[in-house]
Amino acid sequence: MCLAILATFSSTTLNAQKFAFVDSKYILSHVPEYQQAQAEINKLSKQWQKEIETKYETIERLEKSYQAEKILLTDEMRKKREEEMEQKRIEAKELQKKKFGVDGELFKKREELIKPIQDRIYEALQEVATAGSYMVVFDKSNHSNMLYTNPKQDASDKVLKKMGLKPGEVLDEEEKSEGENEETPKEGSPQDKGKGDTKSPVPGRKGK
Question: Rounded distance, CA 176 to CA 190, Å?
């Protein structure tokens, strides 16, 4: 959920440039709606993952049974069993794609729940940046790009106040708990690479 540059604002001069930073994780830890959204997303993810894993377990049992009985089956019976297993594999893969694909239901649910929060944070950030005449606002959460930050330039609390939230009322424990409940995808699990994309809570956009 990190982004090197959250917002960039145009200027007619390169002199006296002002910079600030925010901590997106800190901001999100204050947003109850984000905690609720994450909880709902995690719940759906686990539910769908269990459904798909059940299908794969059924296929595995069929394959073991088939291998054990194969020598006793006629060619017609073997063909029928193989077609049955193949059909179940197709069904499992289709369900996996439907739920966890790049444009699957989990992706759409995340967009539905998280985007309003992203927009809310961005609007507050834009107001703070405009009022402070900041050329660029960085995200402290991207540690690889920020070797040092001066606390005086931290605009996180200003963004929270613009959002009507009180700095200091952190929901870290709830956020941590929800994050730990989200299982790591395994090989062959329903969660594909599309789900692993951790986006910034505030997509970088040009200022007006």
Answer: 23
DSSP string, 59-108: HHHHHHHHHHHGGGS-HHHHHHHHHHHHHHHHHHHHHHHHHHSTTSHHHH
Match 């997106």 to its residue by tokens. 24
pLDDT of 173 reads 42
Domain that holds residue 22: 5-10+17-206
**Which among 189, 185, 183 has a CA at the least distance from the CA of 55?**
189
Report the share of the chain in percent with pLDDT over 90: 45
Low-confidence ranges of the chain (pLDDT < 70): 1-16, 142-150, 169-208
Q: How many domains does the chain have?
A: 1
* Cβ burial 173-182 (10 Å sphere, 16+ → b, else e): ebbeebeeee
Is residue 190 packed enough to be buried (19+ CB in 10 Å), middle (13-18) or exposed (0-12)?
buried
Encoding tokens for residue 77? 């019976």
Which residues, in sequence order, are CB contacts of 48 under 8 Å at separation 6+? 99, 100, 105, 106, 190
- Residue 107: is it exposed, middle or buried by C-beta count within 10 angstroms (0-12/13-18/19+)? middle
Pick from 185, 58, 45, 33: nearest CA to 114: 33
Strand partners, 139: 22
* 3-class DSSP assignment, residue 139: strand
Interaxial angle between packed helices 32-69 and 75-100, expressed in degrees from 0 to 180 and rounded to the nearest 10: 170
The CA distances from residue 33 to 114, 126, 160, 168, 197, in Å, are 9, 20, 14, 17, 21
